[in-house]
Backbone:
């Protein structure tokens, strides 16, 4: 014998799959008997009980349909920030820059007193805001100085190569071509020479603030 739970589930299925405005009580009983594998007409004795159960199920279905569907949270994959293939990035001020080896050392294209320059300085993370901020001291190379550096790249590479006669100078290279007080860390010079093809586009007007 079918349980009350079986009857309720079968009734709900019939009500969902039929037009409740058109199906008659008799048709509903016949479908219910078929679903529960009962003899034809055996449910006619329980018309009133079935009618009450049908009303309850209709009320429940109506309540479910009237509820707003739950809002689904769509999770979008977090993609990495796209980095241009030429390595040139843009800061918050709209200035173009390139990281030299790491985010801590940066070369930025600027205009100083109407002259195009490459500003080289370290960026340190602020202990409070956690933002990268430029170090107060840095090195600026003008367009003319940069071109001279590139023209003498072979000689400078030799100067930077391991040699006892230069070890006493430490890791600093005095660039007398540029200024008597200008010194560049050997690693910085190596980066400038190695990435010359990336720095060259900076010297165009659209990369100078």
Residues:
């Amino acid at each position: 014998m079918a349980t009350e739970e079986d009857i309720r589930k079968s009734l709900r299925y019939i009500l969902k799959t039929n037009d409740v405005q058109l199906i008659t009580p008799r048709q509903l009983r016949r479908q219910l008997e078929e679903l529960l594998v009962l003899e034809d007409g055996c449910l006619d004795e329980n018309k009133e009980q079935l009618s009450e159960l049908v009303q309850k199920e209709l009320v429940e279905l109506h309540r479910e349909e009237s509820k707003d569907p739950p809002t689904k949270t769509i999770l979008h994959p977090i993609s990495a920030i796209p980095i241009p293939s030429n390595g040139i990035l843009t800061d918050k001020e709209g200035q173009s820059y390139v990281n030299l080896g790491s985010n801590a050392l940066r070369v930025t294209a600027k205009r100083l007193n109407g002259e195009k320059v490459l500003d080289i300085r370290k960026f340190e993370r602020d202990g409070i805001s956690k933002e990268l901020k430029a170090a107060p001291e840095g090195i600026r190379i003008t367009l003319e100085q940069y071109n001279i550096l590139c023209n003498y790249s072979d000689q400078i590479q030799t100067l930077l190569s391991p040699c006892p006669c230069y070890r006493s100078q430490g890791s600093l290279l005095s660039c007398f071509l540029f200024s008597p007080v200008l010194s560049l860390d050997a690693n910085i010079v190596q980066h400038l020479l190695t990435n010359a093809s990336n720095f060259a586009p900076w010297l165009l007007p659209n990369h100078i603030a």
User: Anything to note?
Assistant: The longest helix spans residues 47-66. The first strand starts at residue 89 and ends at 90. Residues 73-83, 163-183, 202-209 have pLDDT under 50 and may be disordered.
